[in-house]
């Protein structure tokens, strides 16, 4: 199989032999989802043509990327479809809005070494890839300097040493990009490295892939997580009930049966989900798919995404309605991330 442009940007090693070993011998399931990535729409004209909409310009340096399974859930002929709004560029992206900056979370200042970020006590982020399967227009890392965080094989040893020497850390969070853009072999290799650290007991994966390409939840991936001594947590990124279909639910059920804890975090987005009924329906649909609502994030003020902003007052009004209509376990926590704070800040 021809190597994928998107999958090839891996952030673990510059050792060619190791890279070839970790990304070789693709089984049919692996080849299937990577083929979907290869065939994703990367051109705004192709996207609009597929949806029966009039052509328009692409306004941003941030490219279009939409995989087929996600595209199939967008309503044809509807320029206001909530899923389409998340992936299509508009002229609003190039407007200079005060307070909206390229690095809103200032993550570079929290780097312990290349690829390793610690913002909160007891847990660390591993930036394991710069690749994604979909380019969400509100992404807080849309300007992230991944090239500055790409570790060499020597840096990987520094990461292990740093984790080994800090017994206060008990959880490793795989992030990116999207960590499930890695091959199963590469993911297994990372899990095995983390397993060597006695005081780490949890591995958490934040990913949009189970939603946009459910075929990514392969039997091998499930086995990796089920057989690890680490407690596995998967945090999906689902913003609207229309993103959930039977293929997503089946993938989530397979993970749940493997004792993977399934959580979801959404971003509150204007003209996408800033509605109590939509978000309540999302919580109910998530629960049917064995996923618990976890966080509802206020928009991070990243340059190019100001048109998605929802005021704090409106957000609290939405949450008030949700609290009155849902059991507590289906109400996500409304939070925002403030650089330097010891945790997410509740709103």
Brief descriptors of the model:
globular; 10-stranded mixed beta sheet; single chain; 14% strand; 347 residues; disordered N terminus; alpha/beta
Short description:
By secondary structure, this protein is of the alpha/beta class.
Describe the structure.
The protein is an alpha/beta fold and 347 residues long. The chain has a ten-stranded mixed sheet. It folds into two domains: 64 residues, no CATH class; 240 residues, Aldolase class I (TIM Barrel). The N terminus is likely disordered. Strand 6, helix 10 and strand 7 form a beta-alpha-beta unit. It starts with 15 loop residues before the first helix and ends with a strand.
Distance between the termini: 48 Å
CATH class of the largest domain: Alpha Beta
Q: What's the SSE pattern?
A: HHHHHEEEHEHEHHEHEHEHEE
How much of the sequence is in beta strands?
A: 5-15%
Classification by helices and strands: alpha/beta
CATH superfamily of the largest domain: Aldolase class I
Percentage of helical residues? 25-40%
| Count of strand segments | 10
What does the main sheet amount to?
10 strands, mixed
Topology diagram in text:
Elements: H1 16-22, H2 28-38, H3 44-50, H4 68-71, H5 82-87, E1 111-113, E2 116-120, E3 123-127, H6 153-165, E4 171-175, H7 184-195, E5 202-207, H8 209-212, H9 219-227, E6 231-236, H10 246-257, E7 261-267, H11 276-288, E8 292-297, H12 312-325, E9 333-336, E10 345-346
Parallel strand pairs: 3-4, 4-5, 5-6, 6-7, 7-8, 8-9
Antiparallel strand pairs: 1-2, 2-3, 9-10
